[in-house]
Amino acid sequence: MEGGTITVGCSFTLSGSRKLFCKEKCEKGNILIETTDDSAQSGRYSIKYIEGFFLIHTVVYVSITELEKSDSGRYRCSLDRTPSDHLSLNWDFEVVVTEASTFKTKSHVKPISSSAHLPSSPRPLTWSFTSGSTLPLSAFSESTKQPKTSPASSGILLPVVIIVVLAVFLLPVVLLLIYKKRAVHSNDLNRRSSDHNQTQMVLYDDTSPTSKCEG
């Protein structure tokens, strides 16, 4: 509502060097803030740049304080990559300031490239929040938000992982013991068979008839 503060996070798949916060399109006369720094402020308007890495999107936070009804309208966050590649990334959103106790922002992403193809953009987001609220990064970068694991599922998952790890390490040991046991058993059988054959031969020699010579 009037007199409040709004902060919106503009999510980008790429980083940029020049940051702009504009009313409508970023044309002459519409630029509220233009900077190459990570943060800047001009009157009631401010901008803060947080560069992403790996799967985390780059986010540009823009704020308007002491909202007035005349602040209603479309706004744009814009990132310019480098002057040489003429590549700009834009995030458009709409602010509606009312006399009620709440105000709404509707936003959608419009990546634009004049010389290069950009990755697919995050899904459009719509937010409603009370005056003076600030939305966290997770609210703006919905496409990169990681699912949280509940304590219950973590408690179940940990024992399963431990069991699997133990099974992987113990299985070769068990197989080796079984192999050794079978090898020992096989050697015992061979030894007993050999002793039995030798005993039969000795008995045969002891019971063989002796020849006598009569004079």
From TrEMBL:
<protein>
    <submittedName>
        <fullName>Uncharacterized protein LOC102197313 isoform X1</fullName>
    </submittedName>
</protein>
<keyword id="KW-0393">Immunoglobulin domain</keyword>
<keyword id="KW-1015">Disulfide bond</keyword>
<feature type="region of interest" description="Disordered">
    <location>
        <begin position="190"/>
        <end position="215"/>
    </location>
</feature>
<keyword id="KW-1133">Transmembrane helix</keyword>
<keyword id="KW-0732">Signal</keyword>
<dbReference type="GO" id="GO:0038023">
    <property type="term" value="F:signaling receptor activity"/>
</dbReference>
<feature type="transmembrane region" description="Helical">
    <location>
        <begin position="156"/>
        <end position="179"/>
    </location>
</feature>
<keyword id="KW-0812">Transmembrane</keyword>
<dbReference type="InterPro" id="IPR052314">
    <property type="entry name" value="Immune_rcpt_domain"/>
</dbReference>
<dbReference type="InterPro" id="IPR013783">
    <property type="entry name" value="Ig-like_fold"/>
</dbReference>
<feature type="compositionally biased region" description="Polar residues">
    <location>
        <begin position="196"/>
        <end position="215"/>
    </location>
</feature>
<dbReference type="GO" id="GO:0009986">
    <property type="term" value="C:cell surface"/>
</dbReference>
<keyword id="KW-0472">Membrane</keyword>
<dbReference type="InterPro" id="IPR036179">
    <property type="entry name" value="Ig-like_dom_sf"/>
</dbReference>
